[in-house]
């Protein structure tokens, strides 16, 4: 395999190196999206940062593709590759909390479930995602939208520092004080600049929240969407959550004869004082009659994992996304046409509010450029049977094409599909050229190209 052999790589690393001849290969090469069927030459199950450095060196010196895997949730399958090297960080999941400083340092393969379990014990949290099995790395590097972002900002806004293995095999610290250009680029620039082996986050007092899902009839969907958009514009920033479309899963709080029916819904998260929760959510109940709900006080990690069962490993995935400045009547009409046609109970459409604290960071302060957007929409096509791929991909594309004229040109990088490479410049708006310069500094050969790729500046 070129300058270094697999045996030499095995001697250098602490973790296992899995190749096609090994019994563990089929498990090691799998990612969450079952639509992705790639066969890497080696999967390095990294045990520490030194193993990540070795995997990067091995790929570079042998001229092989390099994929970096954290939680494995990348919809385009960027956590694996054909005939190349996978640096699999999923075994590096430690989280250490410094309660006095209100910070936490987490290894690059940790999930939000790992992170929340560690911080909850101290009554602390930071903005995570919506599914607890999502890796902290991919979510943060792409920006990080979640329940708490209106009050706390994006995940990347709460990043204090990162340890990064760069393309030349070095490990560097990125922060406001050290390598600040790299730190700027990591906060929204995705995996373009290196493999992050640990993240240090700022934490805030959040322990138990008041919230959960509320289901509304489709006949009331227009009112719910319009009312939500108006209300959330200046609602208290402790109020998070989002409107959505969803087929009713077979849950006890939903009438049995409505299981499988399409609904509009709001998933709410009040992170202020618990005794104010019922009043904080009252406006949502006033939008329209609630068919069913599961709302009340709960640990924040319980809400963050509430939908995990709908997104098990092994589904087919195809997603599209846009940022939205204004949820216009025309946009709502497009949602009403396509949202109720959800192809499976796993599929969903979420319209995340990204105002509040997200707007207090300037468009050029981090790589995440859409600081004037009020919503980030994702059309998340997910279903179990590959025989349905053509029809369900068509649903996602038709939905996207109907809403795109009423949206911004760019979308949230973490929701992009493999066929969205042509949108990279639009996704970063005015920040793309600076990102390309940082890319040239830290990865001039584009070793880290299995991502929504930013080309090094010429």
TrEMBL record:
Query: What cofactors does this protein use?
Result: FAD
**What SUPFAM superfamilies does the annotation carry?**
FAD-binding/transporter-associated domain-like (SSF56176), FAD-linked oxidases, C-terminal domain (SSF55103)
Which InterPro entries does the UniProt record give? BBE (IPR012951), FAD-bd_PCMH (IPR016166), FAD-bd_PCMH-like_sf (IPR036318), FAD-bd_PCMH_sub1 (IPR016167), FAD-bd_PCMH_sub2 (IPR016169), FAD-linked_Oxase-like_C (IPR016164), FAD-linked_Oxidoreductase (IPR050416), Oxid_FAD_bind_N (IPR006094)
Cross-referenced PROSITE patterns: FAD_PCMH (PS51387), OX2_COVAL_FAD (PS00862)
Q: What is an example of a Pfam family matching this protein? A: BBE
Respond yes or no to whether keyword Flavoprotein is given for this record.
Answer: yes
- Using the record's annotation, list all stretches that form the FAD-binding PCMH-type domain: 36-206
Q: Which key words are in the record?
A: FAD, Flavoprotein, Oxidoreductase
Q: Record's PANTHER family?
A: BINDING OXIDOREDUCTASE, PUTATIVE (AFU_ORTHOLOGUE AFUA_1G17690)-RELATED (PTHR42973), FAD-BINDING PCMH-TYPE DOMAIN-CONTAINING PROTEIN (PTHR42973:SF39)
Give the protein family: Belongs to the oxygen-dependent FAD-linked oxidoreductase family.
Name of the protein described by the UniProt record: FAD-binding oxidoreductase
The top of its lineage is: Bacteria, Bacillati, Actinomycetota, Actinomycetes, Kitasatosporales
